[in-house]
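Chapter summary example.
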Amino acid sequence: MHKIFAYLKKRIAIITALFVMFAMAFVLDSPQNIYEGYLEILQSPGVLISDYLYIAGLGATLFNVASIMLINIVMLEVLRLKMTGPIFAGLLTIAGFSFFGKNIFNTIPIYIGIYLYARMQNLEFKSFIIVVLFSTGISPIVSFLIFGTGWSYAASIPAGILVGMLTGFILPAFSAHTIRFHKGYNLYNIGFAMGVLSMLYTAILGMVFGFELEPFRSDETSEAFHNELLFLTLVLSAIFIAWGFIANTQVLKKYPKLLKSTGRLVSDFVRDHGMDIAMINVGVMGIISALFVVALNIDISGAVMGGILTVMGFGAFGKHPKNAVPVMLGAAFWYGILYMTNDGDVGVGIAIAVLFVTAVAPIAGRFGVFLGIFAGFIHVMLLPLTLQFQGGFDLYNNGFAAGFVAAILVPIFEALRKNNGEEAEGV
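The structure predicted for these 427 residues follows.
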């Protein structure tokens, strides 16, 4: 019994969040609708942007989110892994993207591929857990090959599973190299690696099989559950903040030190500052996300909710108000320009960029507020171009774009610092 209480104490925040989402699913929808909607989710092609709220409704979507979280939490327990900043970020990112593109059917083949790579390297599967948790950003390739090609199931199912396994097999080695491209200033490094692989898949499917991919169908999103999801955001934020204060009533004394972190990879706030203040920061990032959504009059769709949960997750792994808000302001500035020039018709892609732009938060953390705002502005300008490259198979398109933003701007900013007599940070 003592071990059970000790387990719950360490993971009470994430378990409570899981329970809240399961409960909301069945409170807001009937079991029959959840079942039927969940089947629709499993059979969706999954490419950006497959808003499960539009496809299946709120109950089935929340069930999909909570069930995938549960499976991954069980996996972590089987592997006997402690909760770290990257693992926490991975769990909430999985939850976020389970609102639009991820489901249990299209994630398992990728996990199997990573497992096979670990076996080939004679390494433990758990040593690749960070790659595992973030790997399913490319899961739409599995669903698309099975449900989006029009092929017979005799051909499409083996193709989807095999390509998913191959992707998982390649990803650990590939993502280890891509971090050099942006020098750790892109928090979504695996998203950048998956963007490169997605670009290859898009070229093969287009040139060899003749598919004309049309990613980001922004007309197929649902904002009908804005109030419920805004409420969920605030509830989850309150849960994490409450846990931090319950664990340590003097926890805020740690916050100034955490805010001094640049956030550059690998900034594990749980390891470096403690679980208590990391959870406070997670909740604060949730509230900041909600404030931006309300201030910019953004309606919460599945993709926007995915952005909110991802920002919250990385509150334990690199993001905090001091480095995130500047880049969000840069993105919001571009959003405002488009809002005024298009009579309020901005599009969901730019709306979610206001949240996902925090991938380049370490730039603001390292180089300051004004250059952070500039980086956020540039990020949103590049975003539509990177989407066309990767065809919608990389759910972490902002991570793909952020890699280029960091690769372009960081050398320039470092050179400016050198010219001003300041030593640039090493690689």
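To summarize the output: The CA atoms of residues 40 and 386 lie 28 Å apart.
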